[in-house]
Amino acid sequence: MIEIIPAILSRDYEDLKNKIALVRGFVPVVQVDICDGKYEKNFTWPFGNSGFDAHFQKILNEEEGMPFWEDVDFELDLMVSDAVENFDIYSKLGPRRIVFHLGAIGNLEEFKHFLEGMDNYIRDVIEIGIAVVPDENLEKVSPLINNVDFIQCMGIDKIGFQGQDFDKRVLGQIEKLRKDFPDLVISVDGGVSFDTAPALISAGASRLVIGSAIFNIDDIIGTIEEFRKL
Asked: What's the pLDDT tens digit per position in 38-86?
């Protein structure tokens, strides 16, 4: 069965909490999209015009946890300019997975050294993924495959925003990755719908990360179940 991961892009903590509440108990993992307004123009929780959200500070200080952390694991999609530099900060949110965006990393050789030097305990508890946009040269990814747990192919060109048009080039990316790395876990994020999901699965996708096609529907749980049946 394909893994379905609801994607949450929230302006503030309350919106994040409310969306997680809608799927808690029905999915083991949700993806939290984090945008700093620098790497991409959009910004989401915990970033804001006045700095970090107060709940974020409390989580870092271990005064509270992520919403419903007892019931759901978190996949952090770091669409930020400081993912490597502030990895220790983001890891304090207690994620099960963290996604780095290739376009925000900078020097790939330095990033490879960063992954290789990561603490063994961290690697045991946090899965590491790399996100690539539809026009990304996959040759850049190949040297990193042995240092990551999965690749996230973006089904849209303009990241950091939900409801974008599907970019069919992602199908070719998935097919190539599946051919070159048969055992690789491949996630797809962006543009996933009932119209596009069958082709993504046929191309070789392992996980579907879905935002608007889940949260813009009245029957959220029923929609998740229908995606799982594909």
From this structure: 887 788 999 876 668 899 999 999 999 999 999 999 999 999 999 999 9
Residue 81 and residue 72: Cα distance in Å, rounded? 27
- Closest by Cα among 212, 44, 197, 179 to 188: 197
Distance in angstroms (rounded) separating the CA atoms of residues 163 and 144: 30
Chain-centroid distance of CA 139 in Å reads 21
pTM above threshold 0.85: yes
Q: What is the pLDDT of residues 180-225, one digit of tens each?
A: 999 999 999 999 999 999 999 999 999 999 999 999 999 999 999 9
- Name every residue whose Cβ is closer than 8 Å to that of residue 173 and which is 6 or more positions away in sequence: 132, 134, 136, 138, 153
CA separation (Å) from 143 to 81, 116, 146, 150? 22, 12, 7, 13
Domain count, the chain: 1
Q: Return the CATH number at 108.
A: 3.20.20.70
Residue 136: give the domain boundaries.
3-229
The residue type of 204 is G
